Amino acid sequence: MAPVPRPRDHTALLVSQISSEHDVFALRRHAKTISQAVGLDNRDQVRLATALSELGRDLLRPGIMTAAFTLRQDPATLQAVLQWRDDRAPSSESLSAVTRLLPQTHYEEAPASVRAGGPRSNRSRGGRIEISCPIPAAAARELDTEQVLALLDPGRPASAIDDLRAQTHDLIAALQEAHAQRDELERLNEELTETNAGVMALYAELTVEHKDVVERFGQEHELALTLQRTFLPATLPQVAGMELAVRYLPATATTEIGGDFYEALETPSGLLLAVGDVVGHSLQAATVMGELRHGLRAYAAQDHPPHILLQHLDHLLGLHQPGWTATVCIVLVEPGNARLHVANAGHLPPLLLPPEGPPAYLSEHGPLLGLRLPQPTAASHHIEPGSRLLMITDGLVETRGSDLQERLDLLATTASASRGDSEALCVTLVDTFGKDPEDDIIVFAARLTTPTAPSTG
Questions:
Q1: How far apart are CA 142 and CA 392, in angstroms?
Q2: How many CB atoms lie within 10 A of CB 429?
Q3: pLDDT tens digits, one per residue of 237-250
Q4: Is the dihedral of CA 39, 41, 44, 45 positive or negative?
């Protein structure tokens, strides 16, 4: 059967087969070369290369997959198409992440003409993903197809390290773009720049001394996981009458990058404790998590009450990261540790464990951040001396096939039976609930006693 003729306004630039990790690296390199040659801006170059790299790794199987780049004249558009004829399919998280980066992304199963087994087959096999990137008008007027094709001359093949360095450069460029948009957090730019420099130095060290590790794991994931860790507090504050302990465990699945975070800050109104979780798993989820945590630090320095802090974070998320949502629970412990205030934007409730009597979840709730909805006023609770407070993320208790309320009840029973200090409570809960976690886990515990008055003698 003769191939279906391509419309006259379409020019094929490159067709390649994807069947190995090396082919995925080459696909990313070709995407950067072609998108730069046709005049896409640097942001869209990085987005297209990252999207194809993400989809290429997600769809990589022993069988052949075809990648094709095509130039459309009216309107001027660069199209990238991945197509296959077997049972593979993109994961919902990969497809969702790519669609956020490039909204003109379309996925469809193969039409009947490419179904395996002919008319007798009842199951569709194969599919295609098409990504369209509009070319700026100024670049389209000067576009020379022959020059673009000349740039695709194979020449000297790039090494795996060259490809990894190119990915790292793109990631750093994307992060720098995100930082430039944080006008409300200008006074934190120095801290963010130092964090990024540390990530770059760590990657350089890994590249030189541990090349086997770099080859075995996707560099984008490793960089994002490192970045995620650097956004978490390095130490916890030392406060009279307050015994704090925390545990952070990343998910055991190496392809998952979450947005869990915690914070502990001394403010004029007392000690502020927070735990949050950005909805989703990706490099950008970790970046959004960093923005929220730094935003919380900035707003808390202005001594806002907990529910006002949540409203500011909701505004920040909607302004700079539209479409993203997050859950955050904030607890403010007054000086003297006799009363606390809770504001909760859709997060799991904190657990209060009095020295005598049953544990109780502080169940006040408001809407998730990112929905632009008002938050209810923070609720107040009396604290008995010796009480313990527990805040977690859902990775500790949510598992496939289990009832969340039953898991929360078991958590309360287990925590109540643990009579040690905050460190011992964290150890007990991680040992009991944290085996091979499917999601990131944060366990944040505080023991509250009456502060000892300083001696006047």
A1: 56
A2: 22
A3: 888 889 999 998 87
A4: positive
Summarize pLDDT for 169-208 with one digit per residue, the tens. Answer: 555 555 555 444 444 455 555 666 666 676 677 666 666 6
What are 360-393's pLDDT values in tens digits?
999 888 999 988 899 999 999 999 999 999 999 9
> CB burial class (10 A; 0-12, 13-18, 19+) of residue 308?
middle
* Closest by CA position to 94, among listed 42, 53, 126: 53
Query: CA 301, CA 62: separation in Å to the nearest integer?
Result: 54
Question: Exposure string (b/e) for 361-382, b if CB count within 10 Å is 16 or more?
Answer: ebebbbbbbbeeeebeebbebe
Write down the pLDDT at residue 118.
46
State which amino acid sits at residue 280.
Answer: G
Lowest-confidence range among 308-312, 395-399, 404-408?
395-399
Q: Is 407 exposed, middle or buried (0-12, 13-18, 19+ CB in 10 A)?
A: middle
Instruction: Give 13's contacts (C-beta < 8 A, 6+ positions apart).
Output: 34, 69, 70, 71, 145, 148, 149, 152
Q: Report how far residue 267's alpha carbon sits from residue 212's, in angstroms, rounded to the nearest whole number.
A: 46
Return the structure tokens found at 328: 């955050």
Token representation of residue 288:
């959004």
* Other beta carbons within 10 Å of 163: 19
Q: Across the strands, what pairs with 448?
A: 242, 387
Does the structure show a pLDDT above 60 at 110? yes
Q: Identity (one letter) of the amino acid at 273? A: L
Nearest to 393 by CA among 357, 340, 430, 356: 430
Could you tell me the CA-to-CA distances from 321 to 288, 314, 378, 453 in Å, in that order?
A: 7, 10, 25, 46
Convert the pLDDT of each residue in 258-317 to its tens digit. 678 899 999 999 999 999 998 877 767 777 888 888 899 999 988 899 999 999 999 998
What's the pLDDT score for residue 228?
59
Question: Amino acid identity of 1?
Answer: M
Q: pLDDT, tens digit, for every residue of 409-448?
A: 999 999 999 888 899 999 999 988 877 777 788 999 999 9
Evaluate whether 148 touches 34 at the Cβ level (below 8 Å). Answer: yes
* Phi, psi for 319 (deg, rounded to 5): -75, -45
For tokens 């956020």, what's the residue?
100
